[in-house]
Amino acid sequence: MNLDLTLIVPAFLAGLLVMVTHVPLGIQVLARGIVFIDLAVAQIAGLGVIFADWLGFEPHGAGVQIAALAAALAGALALTWTDKHWPDVQEAVIGVSFILAANLAILLLASNPHGGEHLKDLLIGQILWVTPAALLPVAVLSAVIAALWFGAGPRIGRIGFYVLFACAVTVAVQLVGVYLVFTTLIVPALATRRMTRYRLAACYLLGILGYAIGLGASLISDFPPGPLIVCVMTALGVALFLSFPSRAPK
Fold it and tell me: Whole-model pTM?
């Protein structure tokens, strides 16, 4: 696939913007033991996009953005409530939420002749078709989310965490798709969980290499960049994880 650098550079920048918010949130998600929340909220945001499209809104218009954010916030707040009342089964609730949102999306797309293509775009994304103009509002929102997270951190509470998470995922899933969103969130956090120093920096470096190598590999192959980035980042994550010895049990 001979990809022009005018496509690769915006795609790489999109990946960097996703990492800005997803790396620190991913570490928190892993610490809370709610790994699949990203998949669930991303799928719910995607359901909002599909529902808005089903209602006839413009694909990239304000209506779709509002629907995606409203769906993600509703899902995040619902998961906040279940986390408070049923913490022992929260991971199961998250899994059911993902499956329900995914199948509702399939039902909404069942009568759409391009439904399969829309579903594929939702899952693996259209990172190559990200435009520089689309990156500016994403950069602003990512900066706000990162500032709130690094400024307040755990003090934002359960609801604050889920709201920030929903906002970050809503933006990211429309840039890079559900699979890349989940990979960016979990793989760096998981790969560095044995590290005691410079963990955040290592997470960002791993993400940067994953996006750079994956996009670079797409220049010389016939494979789409999204799945390549997922595979490369995972492989790098496994190598990094295995390079640190496991901590002996106390």
Answer: 0.82
Q: Is 246 helix (H, G, I), strand (E, B) or coil?
A: coil
Rounded to the nearest angstrom, the gap between the alpha carbon of residue 199 and the centroid of all alpha carbons in its chain is: 20
Which range marks the domain in which residue 116 is found? 5-242
15: CB partners within 8 A, 6+ apart: 127, 176, 180, 184, 207, 211, 215, 229
Q: Residue 228: which pLDDT band, with cuts at 50, 70 and 90?
A: very high
Both structure tokens of 75:
């899902």
Q: Tell me whether residue 50 is exposed, middle or buried, using C-beta atoms within 10 angstroms of its C-beta: 0 to 12, 13 to 18, 19 or more.
A: buried
Report how many domains make up the chain: 1
List the structure tokens of 42. Answer: 């991303």
More confident residue, 59 or 136: 136
When comparing pLDDT for 208 and 222, which is higher? 208
Q: Which one, of 156, 168, 147, lies nearest residue 38 by Cα?
A: 168
* Cβ atoms of residues 70 and 63 within 8 Å: no
- From the CB of residue 22, how many other CB atoms can be counted at a distance below 10 Å? 31
Q: Is the dihedral of CA 127, 132, 138, 144 positive or negative?
A: positive
> Which residues touch 248 (CB under 8 Å, ≥6 apart)?
none
For residue 173, is it within any domain? yes
Which CATH number is 138's domain given? 1.10.3470.10
On whether the CB atoms of residues 221 and 205 are closer than 8 A, the answer is no
Three-state DSSP at 208 gives helix
| SS3 assignment, position 103 | helix
Residue 103's CB: how many other CB atoms inside 10 A? 12
Average pLDDT, stretch 217-243? 91
